[in-house]
Amino acid sequence: MNYDFDTIIPRNHTNSLKYDFAKERGKPDDLLPMWVADMDFQTPPAVREALAAKAAHGIFGYSEPDRTYFDALASWFGTRHGWNVDPYTNVCTPGVVFAICTLIRCLTQRGDAVLIQEPVYYCFREGIRDNGRKLVVNELVFDGRQYHIDFEDFERKIVENDVKLFILCSPHNPVGRVWTRDELERMAEICLRHGVFVAADEIHEDFVYPGHRHIVFASLSDEVADRCAVCTAPSKTFNLAALHIANIFIANAQVRKAFKRELDAEGYSQSNIMGLVACQAAYRSCGDWVDQLVAYLGGNLKLMRETFRARMPQIELVEPEGTYLPWVNFSKLNMSASELDRFIIDRAKLWLDGGSIFGAGGAGFQRFNVAVPRATLQQALNQLENALK
């Protein structure tokens, strides 16, 4: 089947955070939204059919994942990522950020240090601070083309701050890196040597472009698997964010028990039945849809890349290896972070994610969401070009 990613599906007046809440978030209501990480594509037909069948049944009582759900997980991760996961190490949560905050509470004490690599997804920083932990930053190094890890700083920060937990973003949001095996193994070796547990946010794992391969952190070795939690969800891949389902794989039985105990303390038990149904259908039947989606996103990135080079050379795409959230460099415009934000909003009439919210090194950058029909992306690029003129 050939899937349609070109049709524009109206999202206004659907309670869409992306489209309907500009004024509530302090923005004009005439902006073209290209910010928050949900897609303007309908979820795959097989998922919609499974949800319709469950809705027709009409009973939405307490529900748990069963063997068929676990089999779907094992098949997806084995086929797509070469990871022979034990699905019975999985704990379902409402989301990856929820799970990371739970890991912060069950693995660290107030005042303990937690390490992140900025510029990075801002919810990490918020989760650390909101839970009373010490934020430690290993800033990624930008060479003008790509981002790299400063491993000497990484280890020094761990030792100097007695870091207990490292939140790894893999693939990295927003800089778009798909970490190589060598990079992952080096981070793993340092963390193992210093007793640092790793919470690996791998929610963007299915968005990897040709020439790159996502490697599940826990697949590096049994020793690594014992000292990490792999945080996954179908929400980004299949546009299911509002169904609140994530799969958190914790091989270490003691850590998994502590994680579940913290969930109990939060009052969380059974998962959203529609999330379970959607996840199972997606992982069981929708691999071809994902392949076509990633190819379409590659076409959108090609359009962005070529448009910048030909018509807006002062703006540079930081070439993404993964995710649908490319990181765009506006530093040649010589604007402050606040001036750039005002330019994007007032002149280009776009709603993007300003780079400063992602922390150290983010000033001068903006994050685009290109998971939209090509006509929508073309409109955004036209508005940006007209603003520059």
CATH homologous superfamily descriptor of the largest domain:
Type I PLP-dependent aspartate aminotransferase-like (Major domain)
**CATH class division of the largest domain:** Alpha Beta
Low-confidence stretches: none
Distance, first to last CA? 42 Å
The whole-number mean of residue pLDDT values reads 97
Strand content: 5-15%
* Separate helix tally: 14
Radius of gyration: 21 Å
CATH topology of the largest domain: Aspartate Aminotransferase, domain 2
**Biggest sheet statistics:** 7 strands, mixed
User: Strand order of the main beta sheet, please?
Assistant: 2-10-9-8-7-3-4
Provide the structure class.
alpha/beta
User: What best-fitting shape do the alpha-carbon axes yield?
Assistant: globular
| Secondary-structure element string | HEHHEHEHEEEHEHEHEHEHHHEEHEEEH
CATH architecture of the largest domain: 3-Layer(aba) Sandwich
- What's the total number of strands? 15
Give an overview of the whole structure:
The protein is an alpha/beta fold and 389 residues long. The chain has 2 domains: 17-43 and 288-388, Aspartate Aminotransferase, domain 1; 47-285, Aspartate Aminotransferase, domain 2 (3-Layer(aba) Sandwich). Helix content is 42%, strand content 14%. It has 14 helices and 15 strands. Strands 2-10-9-8-7-3-4 form a 7-stranded mixed β-sheet, with helices on both faces. The protein has a 4-stranded antiparallel β-sheet with strand order 11-12-15-14. β11 (316-318) and β12 form a beta hairpin. The longest helix has 25 residues, at 287-311. It is globular and about 60 Å long.
